[in-house]
Write a structure and sequence with these properties.
The structure holds 2 protein chains of 2 kinds. Chain A is α/β, with parallel strands linked by helices. In chain A, about 25% of the residues lie in helices and about 35% in strands. Chain A has 10 helices and 20 strands. In chain A, the strands form 2 sheets. In chain A, strands 2-1-5-8-10-12-14-16-18-20 form a 10-stranded mixed β-sheet, covered by helices on one side. In chain A, strands 3, 4, 6, 7, 9, 11, 13, 15, 17 and 19 form a 10-stranded mixed β-sheet that branches. Chain B is α/β, with parallel strands linked by helices. Chain B has one domain: P-loop containing nucleotide triphosphate hydrolases (Rossmann fold). In chain B, β11 and β12 form a beta hairpin. The radius of gyration of chain B is 18 Å and the shape is globular. Chain B starts with a strand and ends with a helix. Classes of the chains: A alpha/beta, B alpha/beta. Chains A and B meet through α8 and α9 of A and α2, β6, β7 and α3 of B.
C-alpha cells in the first residue's frame, strides 16, 4: 500500500476518532476527496519541477501516532527562544503538551486547534476563517482532511501582544517513521500586533514528514511578524504551506530561516485584499550535504496602492540544492503596486545547485515591479582583505556569509531571534566568530 | 626585516613584477613611487600573500624566513599589515567587532587567549583617539557607506590596533583631504619605532611631506629602476615620470 492509499484508507478511522462538529466534518470530507483525486504532486507539475518528493514518500509512515510521549523541558530548552518571556504552544508527535506550553485566554486566545474546532465559543471564528485561505491544492487538502491539532491564535482588536508566541512541534521517533499534519490558524483583528515564532524539530533519526498548514488573517491595520526557524535534522522533511490573507493597511512579514532538514518546501502565499497593504517575505538559506530547500512564493496584488518586498539569500555547499520560485501577480485593478523581489545566491561547492525563477504576471499598467536574481561565489578580494588582518580562511568565509545574509537579519525585530540565528549560522559554518554577531 | 630577492610575479600568466630587489630594515621608512600600472599595488599584494598572484621566481624573506608558502593570515600573524587602497565593505559587522575578531585571531595564532574585554575596550579607546575617530563610527558596519577618508582612517586604526612589524600603506593618501591626510600621517608617525618598518606606496609626493621616507624607490615596468633619498620624491613631483621612462628605455 503506498502512502496515498494508506492515508485515504485511514481517513474514516481518523474522522471517527476525532469529535467534530458538522462544519469541519464537511470541510475534511471535501478535502480528502480532493487529495484522492490529485494525489501527491509530481515533477511533471511546473510548481514541483525542481523538487521531487519520491524519496520522501517511500517511507512507511505511521499517519497518526498512537503513543503519548513526554519530554522534559531541560532536554529541549535549546529549541526555544528561552531568554525572553513568551507564550508557548508545544506539540509532541502531533499531540498537545500542556507540560511544555504556556497558553492564554486573557484578552487574547493562544491555545489549541483541537479545542477551537470543538468548542462552541470558537465556532464563529472557525466558520469565518478555517480553511478560508488555504488553496485546494493536494498537500493543503491532505492537511485539511487530517486537521485536528495545532495552534489557534486569535487576537481581538486593539491589542499589542507583548510576548511573542512560539509554536513548536517536536517529534520523538516513537514510531519507525511518522507523518504529521499540523494545522495553525492565526486571526489578528483591527489594529492589533502579534509576533510568532514557528519551529519543527525532530529529536531522533527516525524519518519524519511534516505537512503543515498555517492560515493567517490580518484585518485592517493589523501587524503580524512571523518567524520560521527551520534547522531540523537530516531525516526530517517539512512541507510548509502558509497562506496569508491581508485586509487594508495591514502589514505582514514572514522570515524563513532554512538551515536544516533533508528536504524543505516552503509554499508561502500572500493575498492582498485591500489598499495600502504591505507584505514582506524574507529568507536566509544555508545548507550543505545533500539537503534540499525550495522556496515557492506567491504575492497576489489584487487592490491598488500596495507593496510587497521579497528578499531571499541562499548559500549552498556540498551537494545541496536550492530552488527559488517567486511568483508575483498584479491584477488589472492593482494600480500603483510596488513589488520588489530579489534572490541572491552563493554556491560554495562545484556540486551545489540553485534553480531560481522569477515569475511576474502583470495586468495593471501603472506599477513598479523589480526583480533580480544572482548566483555567485564568495568575493575573493573580501577574503584577502580579512585574511590580511590575520583572520583565518574559515572564519573569514563565515564572516562574509554572515555579511551576505545581513540585510535579511536586519529586519528581524526580536533581538533574541537575531542572536539565535547568527549563532545557528556560526555553528552551521563550524566557527566561533569570537563575538556575538 | 624584509628582504625581496629577484621577485617575479604574474597574474593570469601576465608578468607584472619582473625582478624586484628590496631590503627594508627595522626602523626605516621606504617609499615606493611610480606611474600607473608599474606594479606598485601588485608588489604590496604579493608581500601580503594574495593568492591570485603567482610568484614565478625569486623570494620574499621576513626576518630571514622565506614566506612564499605562507597564507595571507599567517603573514599577518608574523607582523605584516597591508592598508588597502580600496578597503572592502562588510555589512553587518561593526568596526569594533571586526577588529576584535582580527586581534583575537592573531592572539590565537600565537597561542594566547582572547584579549579580556576590558583591555580590548581600553586599547580601542586609546587608538581611536590617536586617529580622532569617534565612538559612533566604531559601531558602524565596516567600511559600509564610509567616505574615502573614513575608509583610510579606519585602515590606519586597524594598523594601530594590530601593531604590525611591517606596515605597507597602499595609496593611503588617495581620496584624503588635507585634514584627513594630516591625521592619518600623524597616526602612522606615532606608531613608528626602531623595531618596525613602513613601506609607503604612493603616486604623489604630498604624503611624504608628512611621513618622511628614508629611501625612495621608483617602480617602472615591474622593476625598481631608481632609488634615492627623500629628495628623489621632490624631483619626481617636479619633473613627473617621463624622464625616468626615458632613462630606462634609453
Amino acid at each position: 500500500m503506498d502512502l496515498k492509499e494508506k492515508l485515504t484508507a485511514s481517513f474514516l478511522a481518523f474522522e471517527n476518532q476525532v469529535d467534530t462538529d458538522t462544519y469541519v466534518h464537511d470541510v475534511r470530507n471535501e478535502a480528502i476527496k480532493i487529495f484522492e483525486e490529485k494525489g501527491f504532486p509530481s515533477k511533471k507539475e511546473e510548481a514541483w519541477k525542481y523538487t521531487s518528493l519520491n524519496s520522501v514518500l517511500k517511507q512507511d509512515y505511521s499517519v497518526f501516532p498512537k503513543k503519548e510521549n513526554a519530554i522534559e523541558y531541560s532536554e529541549v530548552k535549546k529549541y526555544f527562544i528561552h531568554d525572553i518571556d513568551t507564550y508557548n504552544v508545544v506539540f509532541i508527535d502531533g499531540k498537545y503538551s500542556s507540560h511544555l506550553s504556556q497558553t492564554t485566554h486573557d484578552g487574547i486566545d493562544v491555545c489549541l486547534m483541537s479545542s477551537a474546532l470543538t468548542k462552541p465559543k470558537y465556532r464563529l471564528v472557525i466558520e469565518n476563517y478555517f480553511n478560508k485561505a488555504a488553496t485546494k491544492d493536494s498537500l493543503p487538502s491532505l492537511n485539511t482532511a487530517f486537521s485536528n491539532e495545532g495552534a489557534y491564535i486569535h487576537i481581538p482588536k486593539n491589542k499589542l501582544v507583548q510576548k511573542p508566541i512560539q509554536i513548536i512541534y517536536f517529534s520523538t521517533g516513537s514510531e519507525a517513521a511518522t507523518m504529521l499534519q499540523p494545522r495553525n490558524l492565526v486571526v489578528v483583528d483591527e489594529n492589533s500586533h502579534v509576533q510568532i515564532i514557528e519551529r519543527h524539530q525532530s529529536l531522533t533519526d527516525n524519518p519524519v514528514l511534516t505537512n503543515s498548514v498555517t492560515e493567517i488573517f490580518t484585518n485592517k491595520r493589523a501587524i503580524v511578524d512571523y518567524y520560521k526557524i527551520q534547522n531540523d535534522n537530516q531525516n526530517a522533511t517539512l512541507i510548509d504551506n502558509t497562506f496569508i490573507k491581508q485586509k487594508q493597511e495591514s502589514v505582514a512579514s514572514v522570515h524563513t530561516f532554512s538551515f536544516g532538514g533533508k528536504l524543505v518546501r516552503n509554499n508561502l502565499n500572500f493575498y492582498q485584499l485591500g489598499e495600502r497593504i504591505e507584505s514582506i517575505l524574507k529568507g536566509v538559506t544555508i545548507i550543505g550535504d545533500k539537503q534540499h530547500v525550495d522556496h515557492n512564493t506567491l504575492v497576489h496584488h489584487i487592490e491598488p496602492n500596495c507593496e510587497s518586498h521579497q528578499d531571499y539569500k541562499g548559500i549552498f555547499g556540498e551537494s545541496s540544492t536550492g530552488v527559488f520560485n517567486g511568483k508575483i501577480i498584479v491584477e488589472k485593478l492593482a494600480q500603483k503596486t510596488n513589488a520588489f523581489q530579489a534572490n541572491n545566491n552563493i554556491l560554495i561547492s562545484d556540486k551545489a545547485t540553485i534553480n531560481t525563477k522569477p515569475q511576474l504576471e502583470i495586468f495593471a499598467d501603472d506599477v513598479k515591479c523589480s526583480h533580480g536574481c544572482t548566483i555567485g561565489q564568495l568575493d575573493e578580494s573580501a577574503m584577502f582583505y580579512m585574511q590580511s588582518r590575520g583572520i583565518p580562511e574559515k572564519e573569514a568565509k563565515a564572516l562574509l556569509m554572515y555579511a551576505f545574509s545581513n540585510n535579511v537579519l536586519n529586519s528581524v525585530k526580536i533581538p533574541e531571534i537575531k542572536q539565535r540565528i547568527t549563532k545557528i549560522i556560526a555553528n552551521k559554518l563550524g566557527v566561533n566568530i569570537g563575538f556575538d554577531l | 626585516m624584509l628582504k625581496i630577492e629577484n621577485l617575479h610575479a604574474s597574474v593570469e600568466d601576465k608578468a607584472i613584477l619582473r625582478g624586484i630587489n628590496l631590503e627594508v630594515k627595522a626602523g626605516e621608512v621606504h617609499a615606493i613611487m611610480g606611474p600607473n600600472g608599474s606594479g606598485k599595488s601588485t608588489l604590496a599584494s604579493v608581500i601580503a600573500g594574495k593568492e591570485e598572484y603567482e610568484v614565478t621566481e625569486g623570494s620574499i624573506f621576513l626576518n630571514d624566513e622565506d614566506i612564499d608558502e605562507l597564507a595571507a593570515e599567517e603573514r599577518a600573524h608574523k607582523g605584516i599589515f597591508l592598508s588597502f587602497q580600496y578597503p572592502i565593505e562588510i555589512p553587518g559587522v561593526s568596526v569594533t567587532n571586526f577588529i576584535k575578531t582580527a586581534i583575537n585571531a592573531n592572539r590565537k595564532a600565537k597561542g594566547l587567549d582572547d584579549m579580556p574585554a576590558k583591555d580590548m575596550l581600553k586599547l580601542i579607546r586609546e587608538k581611536s583617539e590617536l586617529l580622532e575617530i569617534d565612538r559612533k563610527f566604531l559601531s558602524r558596519s565596516l567600511n559600509e557607506g564610509f567616505s574615502g577618508g573614513e575608509k583610510k582612517r579606519n585602515e590606519i586604526f586597524q594598523m594601530a590596533m594590530l601593531e604590525p612589524k611591517l606596515a605597507i600603506l597602499d595609496e593611503t593618501d588617495s581620496g584624503l583631504d588635507i585634514d584627513a591626510l594630516r591625521i592619518v600621517a600623524n597616526g602612522v608617525n606615532k606608531l613608528k619605532s626602531k623595531d618596525n618598518a613602513v613601506i609607503v606606496i604612493t603616486h604623489y609626493q604630498r604624503l611624504l611631506d608628512y611621513i618622511v621616507p628614508d629611501f625612495v624607490h621608483v617602480l617602472y615596468n615591474g622593476r625598481i629602476v631608481k632609488s634615492g633619498g627623500k629628495e628623489l620624491a621632490h624631483e619626481l613631483e617636479e619633473k613627473g615620470y617621463d624622464w625616468i621612462k626615458e632613462e630606462v628605455n634609453a
